[in-house]
Amino acid sequence: MGAIIAQSQIPYFDPQFWTRHIVLKDQTRVFIRPIASDDESLFREFLDHITPEDLRKRFFGPVKEFSPAFVSALVDIDYSTAFAALALDEINGLILGGVRLMLSEDQQAGEYAIMLRSDFKGRGLGWQLMRLIIDYAKDKGLKRIEGRVLAQNYPMLEICAELGFGIKLDPQDPGIRLGCLELRQLGLERKNFFGVRHISFQNRSVVV
Ligand SMILES: CC(C)(COP(=O)(O)OP(=O)(O)OC[C@H]1O[C@@H](n2cnc3c(N)ncnc32)[C@H](O)[C@@H]1OP(=O)(O)O)[C@@H](O)C(=O)NCCC(=O)NCCS
User: Which of 29, 34, 40, 190 could form a disulfide with 90 if both were Cys (CB 3.0 to 4.6 A apart)?
Assistant: First the structure.
C-alpha cells in the first residue's frame, strides 16, 4: 500500500505527449520532441549554425566555444525540474531550434530560453515553440512563465507581447527587459496548442 502511494507521488513525464508534427507557413515540416541525453552531437551541429549575435541574445554575452560538459548539460535534462524540446527538420533530421523551461524550486514558475538556427528565423517556428512551453507550463500547473530578454531583441519582445507577456524594465540592468506571463489569467485547461489532446502512437500523432 505504502509503495503504491509513493509511486503515485513520482512526477510523471510522458515524452510522447510532448511530440508534435507541425507544418510552417512556408510548408516546412517540423517534428518537435523533448530533448534527450543522446542528442549531444546533433545539438553541437545546431550550435555551429548560430551566429555570434544570436548566441549573445540567448546567453547574454559573447560565447567563444562550447565545452563538452556545457553541451552535455544542455541536452541532459532532469524533467522533474525542467522541460526542453527540439524542433527538427523532418527531411534531414537536423535541429532547427530549441526551447527550454527551467522550473523554480517551488514549481510555481518557469524561466524560458529559446534559440533558433540563425538561417531559420522569421518563419514562425519561434512562435510555435513559445506556444509549446506555454502549453507545457499550463499542463504542469505553473502560475507564470518568466524570461529575460535583451532590450534590443525586438523579435523576441514582439512575440512575448503578442503572447500576452507583461514586459518591464529590469531594475538591476537597463539593457534587459523582464517578461512575465501570468497563466492563471489564461485558465488551466489541459489542452495542447492545437486545442486538443494529442497522443503519439507508433510514430503517428493521434488526436484524442
Ligand atoms: C527570438 C526568436 C526565438 C524568434 O523566433 P522566430 O522564429 O524568428 O520568430 P517567428 O517567426 O516565430 O515570429 C516572428 C514574427 O511572427 C509573429 N508571429 C509568428 N507566428 C505568429 C502567429 N501564429 N500569430 C501571430 N503572430 C505570429 C511574431 O510576433 C513576429 O512578428 P513579425 O514577423 O510580423 O515581425 C529567434 O529569432 C531567435 O532564435 N533569436 C536568437 C536567440 C534569441 O534571441 N533568443 C531569445 C532569448 S530571450
Answer: 29
